[in-house]
Amino acid sequence: AGSRDLSPRDVANLFGKLLGRTVEPQEAPLEAVVPTLKSFGFSENVAGLLREMNAWFASGKAAWENGNARVVRGTMDPEDVLRAFV
Fold first, then answer.
1. Which band of pLDDT confidence, cut at 50, 70 and 90, is reported for residue 52?
2. pLDDT of res. 64
């Protein structure tokens, strides 16, 4: 995982800071998930399951959790990582 959790808005704000302008996150239409993944070679079934997972995360009904697993986080600051894309 990254050194800290970021929301889409957090990432947009970091890009905005690096670009020196306002960046607004845009939500992709959920209807585009299955056709897009199928165009990458995913099966209809797997693409549908990933669409369902995306819908649950987007609605806030699901979230990552640690449970008993050890979470390994990187050490790089997200801003430094994003700087490589600008």
1. very high
2. 67
Q: What is the dihedral of CA 54, 12, 14, 21, to 10 degrees?
A: 170
Instruction: Count other C-beta atoms under 10 Å from residue 34's C-beta.
Output: 18
CB 14 within 8 A of CB 39: no
HSE-CB of 38 using CA atoms within 13 angstroms: 11
Residue by residue, DSSP assigns the chain as --SS---HHHHHHHHHHHHTS-----PPPGGGHHHHHHHTT--HHHHHHHHHHHHHHHHTS-----TTSPP----S-HHHHHHTT-
